[in-house]
Each structure stands twice: as C-alpha cells, then as structure tokens.
C-alpha cells in the first residue's frame, strides 16, 4: 500500500508543479466553453439547450489532452523499467497512475463546471446534473484512455495515435453523459437510466483498463 | 545464491545479438560483461532484469528468496537515471525507496553516503550528469536488492565518485550480493569476465 500511495503522491505533485499538466486541462476546458457562445451566438435558449453537450465535449477533450504523457514521461526517463521491475503488481501500479491522473486533471474539470455553466446560461439544477455526470463519467475516460497511453508507449507514437485509439472508446461515455444531463433540463426524459449506464461504463473501465494497460506495457518493453 | 544463464540467446529487431551464452555468478561475485558497442551488453542486462524475454535458453536465480522472482530481487542501474526533474533530490530518492520497498533506509543518510547531502532539497533538474549518477547509486543502496545490474555504472563519475562506488560494490559483495556489470573500464573489484563478441 505504501508503494501505491507513494506513486500517487509523486504523480500528483509532478502534475501540480511548474511544467505539470494539471492546469492545462482546465485552461483548455475554459477556452472551449468561453468561445462557444461567440460561435453559436447570443441566443440564450439555444445556449441553455446546448450547454450540457458543450460542457461534456470540453471536458472530454480536456481530459484526453494530457493523457498521452501518462506513461510516455516515465518511459523516456527510465522510470517505467523500474516500475515494471518492482514488487508491486503492474496492474495496481497502472491503476494508481490513472487514479493520480484523474485526481490531478479530471477533478479540477468537475470543480470548474459550475462556474462554466453560468457562461452557458444553465440553471443550477442542470449544472449540477452535468457536474454529477462528469464525476461519474470522467473516470471511464481516464481508465480507457490509459490503454491508449500504454499502447502509445509501446508503439512509439505520440498523441495522435492516442486520440485515434481512445476517441471511439469514449463515444458511449459521451452519449450517456449528455443524455443524463439533458434529462435534467427536459422533464420527460429519465435521468436514472443513462446515469446508471454511465456508472457501469466507469466501473467496467476501472476493471479492464489496468489489466489491458499492464499487458500492453509488459509485452511492449524492449 | 547463484545466478545461472544457460544457452541464452537474444534477438532484437530480427537481428541475432548473441546465441548460446552461458554464464554463472555466485554469491559475493561480480561479473563484468565486456565487448564492443552493439555486442549486446545492455540487452543481456535487460534480459536478466526481465525487461526483455530471451529468444532461447533460461536465466534463473538459485537459492534466492523463493517468494520473489529474479526481477523482483534485482535492481537495474541503467543509462537513464529515472529522475523526475520537477521533484527535489530527496523527494526522488524517497519515492523510489517507498515504491520499491527499502524500509529503514533514511534518504538523508543515503544521500550523505554518495556525497549529495548538500543538494538534497534542490530540484533534480539542477544536477549535473555525475550528480544524477550519484543519485542513481543512492537509489541502488536504498532499495536493497541482492542482485545489482549495472550498465556502465561509473559513466560521468569523477575519480572520487569512482573510488566511492568501488567501495560500495565491495561492501555489497562482502554482504553476499551479486553484481553483473556491463563496462568498458575495469570495475575496480575482482570480477569474472564475460566477453561478448560482435555479432556482425
């Protein structure tokens, strides 16, 4: 346990320091959401209707933005070799790294959501619904994205490959995340069903992600 | 405890690096792997470390901790120093000690042993190549593995650092450790030689 706690602590403090990636995601999220009203126009009703989708798209792209460095940085400086050689199972180490990434890069997005909701003319209830669905859905993005990040290390291709590999996997998360948030605006739609599926997607990726990433790292090192 | 390699062969990128390699390192012994560039010294270390799969043959540690694999009982001192430049020197060392499990090793004391105590709180990005190597050596001490796999360990070290490292290696061997080192210069401790020939 101390080993995993040490890994999480290290990754978070690297992300939060100068040159780390934690704030880049939030800034990107902010710029997407701030620019959207200028592109769509000052139609308040339209903005409120598009709001949840815009917030979700922004959060999805922002959370993928820094994900390609998840294993690449450790690979480049040789840390990955020592992580693979350690007595901690590689699956757990991968899960710890993804958790640290989510805490440093995913959680700030969720905290920023209520403020950005104001810019899109969203009421309190829909904003809260978007924040809640992001809380349930972003772990799925991080943990499936981790598989792509591990493959990017072993195939020696950077961010582009990651986006191509991971974006299709994140489509279900986007669909159910936006569906659940829309339900908070349009009454007849149900919030429970898409939200449950979103939670299920997150739980599934929590299980599959670390195993797939660890397998990819083990076979790809040379 | 004995490290035993039998008929080990290695193929990298479709090229045969070496074949039918036999070697043996007993407790308290060092093995110096020598040979020209590209003869597979680093590949051999990575095979022993478990980071590469052998194309043929086997490598085993006899009489070690039965609960642990050879990989888990080894520490690999590679070219790349596994440092995070965003962290301070002592944070880097503390992390590896906690992650690789070297309970009871005080980071400050270990840094003093390799002559880095004055730099403990400065960011690792300010270290020179030789100081980075010293920090790697501190890590090697802190994680307490019986099998040391060293890839040109004295690269970038000044003469004081080299003689310090010779003493540390001798200590490790005296405590019953094993050393396999890829090197172009004499190790400084009594060592068997394993000569790899150029495959081409």
Structural features, described:
- The complex is a heterodimer of chains A (222) and B (200).
- The two termini of chain A are 28 Å apart.
- The radius of gyration of chain A is 18 Å and the shape is elongated.
- Chain A is mainly alpha-helical and 222 residues long.
- Chain A is built from nine helices and no strands.
- Chain A has one domain.
- With 200 residues, chain B is an alpha/beta fold.
- Chain B has a five-stranded parallel beta sheet with strand order 5-6-7-3-8, with helices on both faces. A three-stranded antiparallel beta sheet of chain B has the order 2-1-4, covered by helices on one side.
- In chain B, helix 3 (107-113) crosses helix 4 (129-142).
- Chain B is globular.
- The termini of chain B are far apart.
- At the A-B interface, helix 1 and helix 5 of A face strand 5 and helix 2 of B.
Shape of chain A: elongated
- Number of DSSP strand runs of chain B: 8
Tell me, rounded to a whole number, the average pLDDT of chain A: 87
Order of helices and strands of chain A: HHHHHHHHH
Number of structural units classed as domains of chain A: 1
* Percent helix of chain B: 25-40%
Question: Strand share of the residues of chain A?
Answer: under 5%
CATH class of chain B: Alpha Beta
Catalogue the unreliable spans of chain A.
Answer: none
What is the CATH architecture descriptor of chain B? 3-Layer(aba) Sandwich
Structural class of chain B: alpha/beta
**What's the name of the CATH homologous superfamily of chain B?**
P-loop containing nucleotide triphosphate hydrolases
Q: Over all CA atoms, what is the radius of gyration of chain B? A: 17 Å
- Return the CATH topology of chain B: Rossmann fold
Termini gap of chain B: 35 Å
Largest sheet of chain A: none
Which range does the strand content of chain B fall in?
25-35%
Average the pLDDT over all residues of chain B and give the rounded result: 87
């Amino acid at each position: 346990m101390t080993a995993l706690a040490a890994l999480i602590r290290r990754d978070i403090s690297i992300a939060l320091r100068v040159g780390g990636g934690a704030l880049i995601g939030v800034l990107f999220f902010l710029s997407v959401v701030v620019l959207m009203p200028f592109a769509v126009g000052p139609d308040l009703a339209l903005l409120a209707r598009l709001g949840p989708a815009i917030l979700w798209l922004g959060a999805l792209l922002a959370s993928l933005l820094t994900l390609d460095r998840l294993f690449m940085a450790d690979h480049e400086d040789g840390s990955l070799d020592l992580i693979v050689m350690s007595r901690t199972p590689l699956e757990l180490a991968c899960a710890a790294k993804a958790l640290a990434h989510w805490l440093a890069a995913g959680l700030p997005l969720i905290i920023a959501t209520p403020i950005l909701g104001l810019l899109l003319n969203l009421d309190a209830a829909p904003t809260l619904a978007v924040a809640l669905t992001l809380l349930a859905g972003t772990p799925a993005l991080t943990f499936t994205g981790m598989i792509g990040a591990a493959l990017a290390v072993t195939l020696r291709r950077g961010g582009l490959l990651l986006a191509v590999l991971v974006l299709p996997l994140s489509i279900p998360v986007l669909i159910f995340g936006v569906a659940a948030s829309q339900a908070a605006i349009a009454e007849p739609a149900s919030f429970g069903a898409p939200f449950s599926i979103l939670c299920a997607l997150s739980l599934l990726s929590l299980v599959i992600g670390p195993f797939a990433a660890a397998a990819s790292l083990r076979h790809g090192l040379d | 405890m004995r490290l035993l390699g039998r008929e080990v062969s290695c193929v990298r990128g479709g090229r045969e690096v070496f074949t039918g390699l036999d070697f043996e390192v007993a407790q308290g012994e060092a093995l110096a792997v020598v040979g020209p560039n590209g003869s597979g010294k680093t590949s051999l270390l990575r095979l022993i470390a478990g980071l590469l799969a052998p194309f043929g043959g086997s490598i085993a540690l006899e009489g070690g901790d039965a609960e642990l694999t050879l990989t888990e009982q080894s520490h690999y001192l590679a070219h790349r120093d596994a440092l995070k430049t965003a962290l301070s020197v002592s944070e880097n060392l503390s992390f590896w000690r906690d992650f690789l499990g070297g309970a009871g090793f005080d980071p400050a004391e270990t840094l003093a042993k390799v002559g880095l105590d004055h730099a403990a709180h400065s960011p690792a990005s300010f270290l020179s190549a030789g100081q980075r190597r010293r920090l790697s050596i501190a890590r090697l001490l802190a994680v307490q593995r019986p099998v040391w796999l060293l890839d040109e360990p004295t690269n970038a070290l000044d003469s004081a650092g080299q003689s310090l490292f010779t003493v540390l290696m001798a200590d490790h061997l005296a405590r019953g450790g094993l050393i396999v080192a890829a090197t172009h210069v004499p190790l400084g401790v009594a060592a068997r030689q394993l000569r790899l020939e150029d495959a081409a």
